[in-house]
Design goal:
The complex is a heterotrimer of chains A (about 500), B (about 350) and C (about 150).
Chain A: H1 2-14, H2 17-35, H3 41-48, H4 57-82, H5 90-102, H6 106-139, H7 144-159, H8 166-179, E1 183-184, E2 191-192, H9 206-224, H10 242-264, H11 271-284, H12 297-320, H13 326-337, H14 344-349, H15 351-381, H16 387-406, H17 409-427, H18 433-456, H19 467-495
Antiparallel strand pairs in A: 1-2
Helix pairs in contact in A: 1-15, 2-4, 2-15, 3-4, 3-13, 4-5, 4-6, 4-13, 4-15, 5-6, 5-11, 5-12, 6-10, 6-12, 6-15, 7-18, 7-19, 8-18, 9-16, 9-17, 10-11, 10-12, 11-12, 16-17
Chain B: H1 2-25, E1 34-35, H2 58-62, E2 74-78, H3 85-101, E3 105-109, H4 116-124, E4 131-136, H5 138-145, E5 155-165, E6 167-171, H6 179-188, E7 191-195, H7 201-213, E8 217-221, H8 225-233, E9 239-240, H9 244-252, E10 256-261, E11 286-294, H10 299-313, H11 316-325, E12 328-333, H12 334-351
Parallel strand pairs in B: 2-3, 2-4, 7-8, 7-9
Antiparallel strand pairs in B: 4-11, 5-11, 5-12, 6-10
Chain C: H1 6-24, H2 40-63, H3 68-71, H4 75-112, H5 118-139, E1 144-145
Helix pairs in contact in C: 1-2, 4-5
Classes of the chains: A mainly alpha (about 500), B alpha/beta (about 350), C mainly alpha (about 150).
Keywords (chain B): Signal
Organism (chain B): Thermobacillus composti (strain DSM 18247 / JCM 13945 / KWC4)
Protein name (chain B): Tripartite tricarboxylate transporter substrate binding protein
């Protein structure tokens, strides 16, 4: 098969000593940067572009792709170990990853994440290599109405993450929705809730809010109860228990599918497949209450979905020249700076280039896996550093990370404020994940809604005349009714113990 | 004790990494930069491979003469995110300038407020020539849009480097093949026009065209030009009026066709496509990009920078870049650039209020 | 009893917040030609949040889940938290003048000195700040706030 030959040719280029080295450096640096809270893969990639200037294009992109993957995994590490997501998508990993770490099973969480990431990433790259172009055509069918329907679906999924109290969960969700309104209204250009502050014109940065709500509040909580901590649980084990393998692998499989499909749709971000995967795993699990307390599938699924997304997100980029997410947009910029224009002509004019990159992604994924399986144990030992030393260090890193987002103290201040808010939210058992997730979703959702309405000239029923959006909306309604029903049913039986309303 | 051991080990590892980085990276100072206090001094920083500690004190900066400037690194503030058009242009020019000036030119991204945050920062910075900024056309649109009080009179202008004309692009299977057919159709049917956002330069371009040719349209804003082009390719909207560069790959993929460009000459990449002026519509709207300095920077410093930018803009690398991106390299020096910016400001101040954006 | 109920206080804060948003939303257009205007979402969302906060207050009153006295930090814990908050605040205020090295050291010192001997705290603060400085600046090229002299 022609593609296969070209792929092999790509491997030949990618396996040159220099390129291997660059790949390794990229992955390592990416990971280290991703580990620092606040610097997600997007920032890491953007910051390191200048380093690649002197290199020849293929090597440069190989390194950048490595940074991209490494950065994603780095975000996972901090989510699991210190409950501080490096970017929005890692929020989901915190939900079950951190509890696992608390039980001394951080190694397992990280190991599973590494394995899942590898499988998801590799399969999605295979997809990119062989069926990429055909799929890209299909992805174009996603216009604003379909997008809105997808976001609606995602929001409904958030309901599933409500935690024990529906009221508090809803409060968190709506809080997130309102926070996302700050900034320039995309449609009319009117300024909402900006109070004359130029920094608020673009709204709150999701990363600062996340770091504050999750990271800073965790530090505050930790410092408060520091004198109470007794023995830290021993860190042991790297792989799941025997009985956990099967559900884990199934979760990985589902995550791959979800991630791959999500990546094809331009305009999404890695948060969406992670969210969908987590909700899916939770819905189909036999014992839902395990989630939030350290369910392995809750880490395996989203992590896999996330990496599968990365691979297939490159499909629109390579075939149509359209970036799927902000990080990809940065990669696009890097391509351009090195004189390569992604698009349909890329495959034709520079086939060696494309295949070499694809090949190096395989390699990058592999390197990530090989490096991380043994290292996971080492990372987990970070938890053993005494808190009175650990927390201050993390605090400084986090402050620096927040600053570096935009070279301004404003972000540090926002993070600070949200840290205090998050502290109280944790104490009052108001879940924080819905806040972050709704912010991400609603920004995209409101834009799509208004765009769709303009296209339809006000006719709301047009949503149902298009196959994809109709299906998604109907699905959302069904899932919503179903989840609310299930929650109410659960509460009724819990009322017997008079725990809460 | 465990603490000490982990700490020492950590230090050793970091030192090793640091030395390795020093040795291998050797990029001419494009890493490492400094931030300065609000309106205060510009800071210095050590570049990677050397440990140059040249620290000019504030007094000598004020008395800087042409022969001594620049004595240390210059910061180039880009008001938009890394990886975007503004950022890419700035980085390439910065590299070219470094070769000419023999001193590092470091890009610092300060995003937010549709460029407002970065531009305000430059406005408030010291006018000693060590902080410069990149500005796209948005500077002249800020005040008319009500985004801020920024306007050209608050800055010094070094040079313009790019011009990015707007273009009328439609799906390949649309029922019109020329501008005339398009306008005819648009007058009778309200089309959906996508742009990179309400009040963006491409939205304004569409409005200007609509006004000149006498048609109305439904404006569908997107989060940037790329999503708008995607929606166009999927057939969800009727037309976009963004830059040629942003639709180039779509045209080459055979999904889009270019009807006209809003510039004075035809685009070299598409010599068969007429300009709007040729078709009888006096519309010329283009995005553009250039470099600015805080008000009051001495003229000789401006001249030195202008020369460096000119060399950088004429480099092969930049030429290749602009060509691939469908941008036009257009160099306007100092006073000419300022005049141009002022006239754009006037133009938008008149046009934008008629667009009914509030 | 009401004073002790943290849930009620939180609910009141939420209520005030949503009322504020609701009120602000009136200065924005409700509808545009075809669809929601900038004011529609804020109005509806804050309206719903108002309802939710009321429910939350009522629910907290009935069940009295969280006592304020349990929630607020006190004693050692309180001082620890305050030291963290103070340290970051100090950092933010002085960093643009004194540069990262000094501000970072100061920040860490404030947090550490209660738990270590003061000279140990100072050394640790300095070393950690230095390492981070070196990683971020020369190694990664991330712009960080520095003073006149470049550190």
């Amino acid at each position: 098969m022609d593609s296969l030959m070209q792929l092999l040719g790509g491997f030949e280029t990618a396996l040159s000593w220099w390129n291997l080295f660059y790949c390794l450096v990229g992955v390592t640096v990416g990971m280290l940067v991703g580990v620092l809270p606040g610097l997600g893969p997007a920032t890491a990639t953007a910051l390191l572009i200048p380093i690649t200037f002197g290199m020849d294009p293929i090597s440069a992109i190989i390194m950048l792709a490595g940074i991209y993957y490494g950065g994603m995994y780095g975000g996972t590490i901090t989510s699991v170990l210190i409950n501080t997501p490096g970017e929005a998508a890692s929020v989901i990993t915190c939900l079950d990853g951190y509890p696992l770490a608390k039980q001394g099973r951080a190694g397992v969480a990280l190991g599973v994440a590494a394995i899942g990431s590898f499988i998801g990433g590799t399969i999605s790259i295979i997809g990119l290599a062989f069926i990429g172009p055909a799929l890209a055509e299909w992805a174009l069918k996603f216009g604003p109405p379909e997008f809105f329907a997808l976001m609606l679906f995602g929001l409904v999924m958030v309901v599933g993450l409500m935690g024990r109290s529906l009221i508090r969960g809803l409060i968190a969700a709506f809080l997130g929705l309102i926070l996302s309104l700050v900034g320039l209204d995309p449609v009319s250009g009117a300024q909402r809730f900006t109070f004359g502050q130029p920094f608020l014109l673009e709204g709150f940065d999701i990363v600062t809010i996340t770091m504050g709500l999750f990271g800073i509040s965790e530090i505050l909580l930790g410092m408060e109860s520091m004198y109470k901590t007794g023995e830290l649980p021993k860190v042991k084990g790297l792989l799941p228990r025997r009985d956990e393998w099967k559900p884990t692998m199934k979760a990985i499989g589902r995550g791959t599918a979800l991630g791959f499909v999500s990546g094809l749709v331009p305009g999404t971000s890695s948060t969406i497949p992670a969210l969908l995967s987590y909700s899916l795993e939770r819905q189909i699990a036999k014992d839902k209450s395990r989630f939030g307390k350290g369910a392995i599938e809750g880490v395996a699924g989203p992590e896999t979905a996330n990496n599968a997304y990365c691979g297939s997100a490159l499909i629109p980029l390579f075939t149509l020249g359209i970036p799927s997410s902000p990080t990809i947009a940065i990669l696009l910029g890097a391509f351009i700076m090195h004189g390569l224009t992604p698009g349909p002509t890329l495959f034709m004019e520079n086939p060696n280039f494309v295949w070499a990159i694809i090949a190096s992604m395989f390699i990058g994924n592999l390197i990530l896996l090989i490096m991380n399986l043994p290292l996971a144990g080492m990372w987990a030992k970070v938890a053993l550093v005494p808190p009175k030393l650990l927390y201050p260090i993390i605090l400084l890193i986090t402050v620096l990370g927040a600053y570096s987002i935009n070279n301004s103290l404003w972000d540090v201040g926002v993070m600070y404020a949200f840290g205090i808010i998050g502290y109280f939210m944790k104490k009052l058992d108001i879940p924080m994940a819905p806040v972050v997730l709704t912010i991400v979703l609603s920004k995209l959702m409101e834009t799509s809604l208004t765009q769709s309405m303009t296209i339809f000239e006000g006719n709301m029923f047009a949503f149902f005349q298009r196959p994809i959006s109709a299906t998604l909306i109907v699905l959302s309604i069904v899932v919503l009714i179903f989840s609310v029903f299930a929650e109410v049913k659960n509460k009724k039986s819990a009322l017997a113990g008079d725990i809460e309303m | 004790m465990k603490k000490k051991k982990t700490l020492t080990g950590f230090i050793v590892v970091m030192l090793v990494l640091f030395l390795a980085a020093c040795g291998s990276s050797g990029s001419s100072g494009s890493s490492g930069s400094s931030d300065s206090g609000s309106g205060g001094n510009s800071g210095t920083s050590a570049s990677t491979s050397s440990n140059s500690g040249s620290q000019a004190s504030q007094q000598s900066e004020a008395k800087d003469t042409a022969s001594k400037y620049p004595e240390r690194e210059i910061q180039l503030i880009v008001p938009f995110a890394a990886g975007g058009a503004s950022d890419s242009i700035s980085r390439i020019i910065a590299k070219g300038m470094e070769e000419h000036l023999q001193k590092p030119v470091v890009v610092v991204n300060k995003t937010g407020g549709t460029g407002g945050v970065g531009l305000s920062f430059v406005e408030a910075s010291a006018n000693d020539g060590y902080i410069m900024g990149y500005t796209p056309v948005e500077l002249t649109m800020h005040k008319p849009l009500g985004l801020s009080e920024l306007e050209p009179s608050k800055f010094e202008f070094i040079a313009q480097v790019t011009k990015i004309p707007a273009a009328v692009t439609v799906p390949i299977d649309a029922p019109y093949n020329t501008l005339e057919e398009f306008v005819e159709y648009a007058r009778n049917n309200k089309l959906t026009v996508g742009s990179s956002g309400a009040g963006s330069i491409w939205h304004v371009a569409a409005a200007a065209f609509g006004q000149a040719a006498g048609f109305e349209f439904n404006h569908v804003p997107f989060d940037g030009a790329a999503p708008a082009v995607t929606a166009l390719m999927g057939g969800h909207i009727d037309v976009v009026m963004v830059s040629v560069g942003e639709v180039k790959s779509g045209i080459e993929a055979g999904k889009l066709k270019l009807l006209g460009v809003m510039s004075n000459e035809r685009d070299p990449n598409f010599p068969d496509v007429p300009t709007l002026k040729e078709a009888g519509y006096d519309v010329e709207i283009a995005g553009w990009g250039g470099f600015i300095l805080p008000k009051g920077t001495p003229q000789d410093i401006i001249d030195i920078l202008a020369e460096a930018i000119e060399k950088a803009a004429q480099s092969d690398e930049f030429k290749e870049f602009t060509q691939k991106q469908g941008m036009l390299m257009e160099y306007k020096k100092g006073a000419e650039f300022k005049e141009f910016a002022e006239s754009q400001f006037q133009f938008f101040s008149e046009l934008i209020p008629t667009m009914g954006l509030k | 009893m009401i004073r002790q109920n943290a849930g009620i206080w939180a609910g009141i804060v939420l209520l005030l917040f949503s009322v504020f948003v609701f009120w602000q939303s009136f200065s924005l257009h409700y509808r545009t030609a075809f669809g929601p205007g900038p004011g529609m979402f804020p109005r509806w969302l804050s309206g719903i949040l108002i309802v939710l906060s009321l429910v939350y207050i009522w629910q907290s009153a009935r069940k009295e889940i969280f006592r304020l006295s349990e929630i607020l930090p006190k004693g050692e814990g309180l001082i620890n938290i305050l030291s963290v908050l103070l340290s970051v605040f100090v950092f933010m205020v002085i960093v643009n003048r004194t540069g990262f090295m000094i501000a970072g050291t100061a920040m860490l010192f404030i947090v550490l000195f209660r738990h270590f001997k003061w000279y140990a705290a100072l050394i640790i603060a300095f070393v950690v700040t230095l390492i981070l400085f070196l990683i971020f600046k020369p190694l990664l090229g991330v712009p960080i706030p520095v003073n006149q002299f470049g550190w």
